[in-house]
Each structure stands twice: as C-alpha cells, then as structure tokens.
Design brief:
alpha/beta; 5 strands; 20% strand; 5-stranded mixed sheet; 6 helices
C-alpha cells in the first residue's frame, strides 16, 4: 500500500499541473520495475485534442519508452477512474495493474468499467489518496461553476 501512495502522489502532482493549465485535473503515470517510465496529464484543451487524456498520453509515452505497444508487467496510476476511451486503450496496452483513486461519479453508475477491465485480467486497486484526489476534482469544478 505504501508504494501505491508514493506513486499516486506523483500522479496527483501531474493533476495539479493540469489544473494550473486550465485542464480537468487528472494525472497518470506508468511504472515498470519500480520506476516511472512515462507520465501524462490532461491536455485536451491545450492540444485541441479530445483524446489527450492523461492516461492516453502516459500510454503513448510508455510505448515509446518500451518500444512496444504491449506494456506488459506495468502498472498505471491515475487520479480518476478512466473513461471508456482510456479503459479501451488500457486493455489494448495489456497493462498488468491499474490503480486509480476515485470513481468518476458522472459515469460510474452507468458503465461498469472496472468489470470490463477485470474481465481482461487487469488487476485493479482503488481508493488511494481519496481525500486529496476528491478535493482537487471538486474544487476545480466548483471554481468553474462559480466563475460563470
């Protein structure tokens, strides 16, 4: 559990960077052999790219690092439950383990993504740094609503 907290702290720092850029605060890292091999933060607005989610960026960077689209024996840490697009990319990448902090309350009750990922033998662990990840997301959207 300590390692999960340690690595999620790195993902949370990326989420903060995304928020500072005006993006939805989500950060992701990919670990291999107890080392960060890639990272990503939401960048859809800045890049004008609907696929520039933290997870997709981290997966692309990990593939480049490993020189393989199969990210076997890796773990992804992400601050928010992946969306459908990111879940599909995680499945295709063959990540071994996914650790995310909080569920996406906008989609979680509609789409059992955890069940889908588990069906593909991806080990899932949730609930790491819940308070911190919840606060950054809630504060981001609260500030968006109150600035209108």
């Amino acid at each position: 559990m300590y390692d999960d907290i340690y690595w999620m702290t790195h993902a949370l720092k990326l989420a903060q960077q995304a928020q500072n850029n005006g993006e939805v605060p989500v950060g992701a890292i990919v670990i291999n052999n107890n080392k960060i091999i890639s990272q990503g933060k939401n960048s859809s607005i800045i890049k004008h790219d609907p696929t520039a989610h933290a997870e997709i960026i981290a997966l692309r960077n990990a593939g480049t690092y490993l020189q393989n689209y199969r990210l076997l024996n890796t773990t992804m840490y992400v601050t928010l439950e992946p969306c459908m697009m990111c879940a599909g990319a995680i499945i295709i990448s063959r990540i071994k383990r996914l650790v995310f902090s909080i569920y996406n309350t906008k989609t979680h009750n509609c789409i059992p993504l955890v069940n889908l990922l588990s069906a593909y033998k991806i080990k899932i662990h949730t609930g790491v740094l819940v308070k911190e990840c919840t606060n950054i997301i809630q504060n981001f959207f609260f500030n968006k609503r109150t600035k209108k």
